Amino acid sequence: MSYRYEYVVREDLSLFDELIFESLFLEMTILRNKILFGEVNWVLNANYHESIVKYDSLLNMIDDENVYLIIATDQNIHYLIIDANHATNLFITFVSIRMVPNISRSIRIT
Fold first, then answer.
1. Per-residue model confidence (pLDDT) at position 8
2. CA neighbor of 69 nearest in space, from 78, 60, 77
3. Closest CA to 7 of 22, 24, 26, 25
4. C-alpha torsion angle, residues 103, 95, 26, 106 (rounded to 10)
5. In 3D, which of 9, 14, 27, 8 has the Cα closest to residue 58?
6. Rounded CA gap, 52 and 59, in Å?
7. What are 17-24's contacts with CB under 8 Å, separation 24+?
8. Residue 88: in which H helix or E strand, if any?
9. At a CB cut-off of 8 Å and minimum separation 6, what does 73 contact?
10. What is the mean pLDDT of each run of 10 residues along the chain (110 residues)?
11. Most buried in the list 37, 86, 93, 106, measured by CB within 10 Å?
């Protein structure tokens, strides 16, 4: 983050549960608008149900705040097999209820 911008690390939203769930959030005010920038990462091969519970808890903490929310993330989920993979289906269902995902392009093709 550039030193030109003032920001605060939101320790209350920055979670680290080893081998399960990790997040980091920064809060900035730009043109009198409070914005939360977050990074959320599910650890590869983590328990997806437990991760969704943690993700939901995190979003519940943010719900009461009057902020714009931007989350950049690497979920380690194969989005192209939503019908064949339970974890992918579970995550997409969860996110689409809570937010509007904007996946503009694949970052990795294997």
1. 94
2. 60
3. 26
4. -20
5. 14
6. 10
7. 17/54, 18/43, 19/43, 19/46, 20/46, 20/47, 20/50, 20/51, 20/54, 21/46, 21/50, 21/51, 21/54, 21/55, 23/58
8. helix 86-98
9. 38, 39, 40, 41
10. 79 86 90 90 72 82 86 66 65 65 58
11. 37
For every residue of 13-64, DSSP letters joined together read: T--EETTTEEEEEEEEEETTEEEEEEEEEEPTT--HHHHHHHHHHHHHHHHT
Structure-derived torsion over alpha carbons of residues 68, 89, 74, 5, reported in degrees to the nearest 10 = 0
What's the angle, vertex CA 105, arms to CA 103 and CA 74, rounded to 5?
Answer: 60
Phi, psi (deg, nearest 5) at residue 57: -60, -40
The pLDDT, as a whole number, for residue 70 is 85
Q: Which two tokens stand for residue 98?
A: 């809570």
Please report how the helices 48-63 and 86-98 are oriented relative to each other, as an axis angle in degrees rounded to 10: 10
Tokens (6 digits) for 55: 């993700």
